[in-house]
Amino acid sequence: MVDLAIRGARVLSPANGIDMVTDVSIIGTRIHHVGPLAQGQTAREEIDGKGYILSPGFIDFHVHGFAYFTDYGTYPDDVGVHSGVTTVVDQGSAGYLTFPAFHEFMVKHSATRVLSYLNIGAVGTIKGSMLPALHGPKTVDVGAVVDTIAKYPHIIKGIKTHAEMGGVARWGFRVLEKAKEAAKQAGVPCYVHTGRLIPCEGFSLPDADSIVPQALEYLEPGDILTHCFTGHPGGIVKITGEVHHTVRQAMADGLLLDVGYGEHFSFDIARKVLDQGIMPYLVSSDVHALFNKPHSLQATYGLFSALSHLLALGIPLNDLIAMVTDHPAKILGLDEELGRIEAGYQADLILFGLESGSFLFQDRFGVSVPASLRLEPKLTIRHGTPYSTQIKEESEV
Ligand SMILES: [Zn+2]
Q1: Which superfamily does CATH assign the domain made up of 2-55+341-388 to?
Q2: What is the whole-number distance in angstroms between the Cα of residue 241 and the centre of ligand 1?
Q3: Are 387 and 380 in contact (CB under 8 A)?
């Protein structure tokens, strides 16, 4: 007798090369067997997966999941298990002074697995980009950051920092330098925001095309640049539309790119980058609640919108699934537990549909792309327990 069996879904697990219609059974919190349920084998609960795809649990590497602390924060479960995601990584909502509250109120009270990249600043992002003083070098205490990471190694997996025009105009690269110093001491990677963010009124702006090449001088293999398809200046693409050659070199050495979808994603830039043969390693949503409505707890997009938009640009489905399962599991050092459908792995799974229709996807810059397919979450299974999904949908035309 197994606890749960998902029958007849297309089981898609790129990390171990599975793409076939079959059954998956679960005992307790672990995957028990991948393959047809044996004759006479029964399950306490059965889920009919016919017509759906069953994938390893999605890992969203960039969310803002500190509700009522960050004014655009969400509850992790709203952008996690209830949005077709089993693991979320909060990117920098908490700093070392505020991490204990994040751990107590968000990590411990979520069905979703909640991990963190600790903000290099002391308090994190109470009001995000609106209070630059919270993001300057004076708020950084390298020793305290390293101590906090050492205290919560199972939750804190890296350091969130920025390399963007507003910060560089104010402080040069001093914050990034300290972030790398802390990351090296703690033995974790840095996750680096690119594209304009912090306001820079009253400061003389640096050349947008100088930011990423200079930032790369501090970064190492395994570090992650996010918003690789940003429509804002100062990203991996020069004003001329060409990807910085220093980015290509760094990628060859092991630098990783993340989509960090959200407010930054531009179809035009994504096309330019993909046309130049550059592929992201991760797809994350950068999901947050509304900026102009503090504590609204409403998110209008998520990881599924990001994946549907990238599918519309021609990235194959199997590659996209690897970017939200196996790849993030590897970066988190959890690839022997998560990221594939295999006996013994944790029973974190997503059942989703590939829905046909006539869709029009829009980015935040007003560019629309027509599409005939979209991904639609059906059910989240986290640690062997099913959760219903309730994500908002893209408009159909
Ligand atoms: Zn973000």
Answers
A1: Urease, subunit C, domain 1 (2.30.40.10)
A2: 24
A3: yes
Please report the beta strands in 120-178, taking only residues with DSSP state E, as ranges in sequence order.
156-163
Quote the ligand 1 centre to 395 CA distance (angstroms): 24
Query: What is the model's pLDDT at position 129?
Result: 58
Rounded distance from Cα 327 to ligand 1 centre (Å): 19
Angle in degrees, CA 120, 78, 369, rounded to 5: 90
How close is the Cα of 185 to the center of ligand 1, in Å? 25
* Distance from residue 264's CA to the centre of ligand 1 (Å): 9
Number of H helices, E strands in the chain: 11, 15
What is the whole-number distance in angstroms between the Cα of residue 15 and the centre of ligand 1?
A: 27
Just give the CATH number of 58-331: 3.20.20.140
Each residue's pLDDT tens digit, 305-331: 999 999 999 999 999 999 999 999 999
pTM beyond 0.90: yes
Q: Partners of 377 in the beta sheet?
A: 352
Distance 248 CA to ligand 1 centre (A): 24
More confidently predicted of 341 and 134 = 341
63: CA distance to ligand 1 center in Å?
6
Separation CA 106–CA 146 (nearest Å): 21
User: What is the CA(284)–ligand 1 centre distance, in A?
Assistant: 10
Which backbone phi and psi does 152 adopt, to 5 degrees? Answer: -125, 55
Instruction: Write out pLDDT tens, residues 137-180.
Output: 999 999 999 999 999 999 999 999 999 999 999 999 999 999 99
Q: How far is the CA of 91 from the centre of ligand 1 (A)?
A: 6
Query: For position 392, what pLDDT does the model report?
Result: 53
- CA 226 / ligand 1 centre spacing (Å): 9
For the chain, the domains span 2-55+341-388, 58-331
Predicted local confidence at residue 128, as pLDDT: 59
The closest alpha carbon to 303, from 102, 131, 88, 150, belongs to 88
In the predicted structure, residue 393 carries a pLDDT above the cut 90 = no
Q: Near ion ligand 1, which residues have CB within 5 Å?
A: 286
For residue 39, the model assigns a pLDDT of: 86
Q: How far, in Å, is the centroid of ligand 1 from the Cα of 160?
A: 10
pLDDT for 275 equals: 98
